[in-house]
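Mods, move this if it's the wrong board.
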Amino acid sequence: MKSQDIPEKLVSIYGRFNRREYVHPDPLEFLFHYPSLRDREIVALTASALAYGRVAMINRSVGTVLEVMGPSPADYVASASSTSLRRDFSEFKHRFATGEHLSVMLIGARNMIREYGSLLACFLDGYDAADPNVLPGLTRFCEKLVLAGDPAHLIPRPERGSACKRMHLFLRWMVRKDAVDPGGWDAVDPAKLIVPLDVHMHRVCTFLGLTSRKAADLKTALEVTAAFARWVPEDPVRFDFALTRFGIRGDMSIDEFFS
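Not the wrong board. Structure tokens:
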């Protein structure tokens, strides 16, 4: 397929699949139940942090956490003591994540809320619209999030070269606003976002000729983001949801669009 044909194909895929009806079983759908931005921040952080492994297991784990948090996850986190968080999630387990890992992450979020008022205000403390992308802001955000302890792999560190797929997924959900991404972090420019690169998206981007790199790492994420930015510089992550449907839903094949 000729490279000049790719943008038209991407627009077609976006128009067909970037719809609420294609969200299930993506953990993104948990965010739709929370109209309050401050609640959605906590839900998005939790759902993105646990977004690895089989999707049924992810959704079960996220649902378990949100059930404990009650109707307002932000109120729950802001008012919880470190002891009560560890008690409430003492039996929690999601693949490699233990209740201690989850509790430490939530303690970090609680401390952010108490110091800044919201996760957004904390992120903006390290974000500069003049930066080429969100990496400086994300690095600072993650540093603040782990001050209370080590949540291990739940919060990856951008400075270590990881693609940080789940943190960039969190930012996509919070910054972009369209038929599927609920947005709310209007002070952050979508043009600064980085593609949430995992093995599925890496495979798609390799198939499209957007990268020849073998590792799904930060360098590759930046490379494919720059490739998408050639066509949509104001929103290079626009096609992420639609393209990742091919990795999540067994009833869809990308070959029919790019054959």
